[in-house]
Task: inverse folding
């Protein structure tokens, strides 16, 4: 028998809507599936869940949508444009995309960050009346050896209040029990930590930042100004590509006093992030190549350089705990 009157708010179509702003590889698609199963199958609501990938490549922005309703039918299958709850899987997205576009008044915002809600309010220009839930999902994921989606599911349950956490944990178990049974308990523990370790701030209704209305994308190109078919007007290059959003907790940190400038790290790096420069060797007077540091803009955190370093001049450390001075790119 379907439960009724459990949704705290609905739009004019009778839906409570969630939009997850994420990066490919962080598990937002799986999180949406688990959340929808818990609410629809476990709690008796109706609803829908799907993701919008764009380019299906790890490290690129993507969105996941969840709609829940107490009505008998679901006739809408379009992207969520006016969410009651927004979930941000990585703070880099705040600078890249209009992640708060369309958020409802008195809505809720869940952010994966090690910063306090007060800082996130200023960084994301959160309007008054929104409640912010901050959780360091990267830290939890690293410590429990899981992805960041399960601690964020815990924070989502804390924010929504009506979604049954036990049902979510049940469907976490169902999701992983066949292929990855050894990950069930760490993921359930990460969920509990995400639920309990949130920092909450109710943003005062001070009119400091305005609500941003949803604006559908309209291509600037039409039949009159479209480029000639087949012409490559913007050739591919890696200079403007920022891969730092792909890092999932750990980052390679360089300790120059340990370095013997062997070059193993440069051979291992798939994205040419290791910077060597020609300098005069003070001992021999010869021109040699010396390791100068890492280009963190293009570093995606694969840690292959750490694996091959013979002297521990490169070490894997939790990025959130590393001084920003150490993570400055040398180029």
Result:
């Amino acid at each position: 028998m379907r439960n009724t009157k459990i949704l705290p708010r609905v739009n004019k179509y009778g839906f409570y809507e969630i939009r997850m702003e994420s990066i490919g590889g962080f598990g937002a698609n799986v999180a949406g599936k688990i959340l929808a199963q818990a609410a629809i199958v476990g709690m008796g609501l109706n609803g829908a869940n799907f993701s919008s990938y764009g380019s299906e490549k790890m490290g690129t922005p993507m969105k996941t949508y969840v709609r829940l309703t107490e009505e008998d039918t679901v006739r809408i299958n379009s992207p969520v444009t006016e969410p009651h709850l927004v979930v941000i899987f990585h703070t880099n997205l705040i600078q890249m995309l209009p992640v708060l576009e369309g958020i409802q008044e008195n809505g809720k915002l869940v952010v994966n960050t090690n910063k306090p809600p007060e800082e996130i309010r200023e960084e994301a220009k959160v309007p008054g009346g929104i409640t912010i839930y901050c959780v360091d999902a990267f830290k939890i994921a690293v410590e429990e050896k899981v992805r960041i989606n399960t601690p964020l599911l815990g924070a989502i349950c804390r924010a929504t209040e009506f979604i049954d956490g036990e049902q979510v944990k049940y469907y976490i178990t169902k999701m992983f029990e066949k292929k990855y049974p050894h990950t069930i308990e760490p993921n359930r523990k990460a969920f509990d930590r995400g639920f309990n370790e949130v920092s909450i701030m109710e943003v005062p209704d001070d009119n400091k930042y305005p609500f941003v209305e949803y604006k559908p994308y309209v291509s600037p190109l039409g039949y009159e100004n479209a480029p000639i078919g087949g012409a490559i007007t913007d050739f591919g290059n890696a200079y403007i590509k920022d891969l730092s959003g792909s890092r999932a907790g750990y980052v390679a940190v360089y300790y120059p006093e340990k370095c013997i400038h062997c070059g193993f790290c440069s051979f291992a790096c798939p994205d040419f992030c290791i910077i060597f420069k020609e300098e005069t060797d003070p001992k021999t007077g010869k021109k040699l190549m010396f390791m100068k540091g890492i280009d963190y803009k293009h570093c995606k955190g694969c840690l292959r350089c750490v694996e091959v370093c013979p002297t521990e001049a490169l070490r894997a450390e939790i990025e959130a705990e590393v001084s920003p001075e150490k993570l400055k790119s040398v180029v």
Remarks:
- Residues 271 and 318 are 21 Å apart (CA to CA).
- DSSP finds nine helices and eleven strands in the chain.
- The longest strand covers residues 15-23.
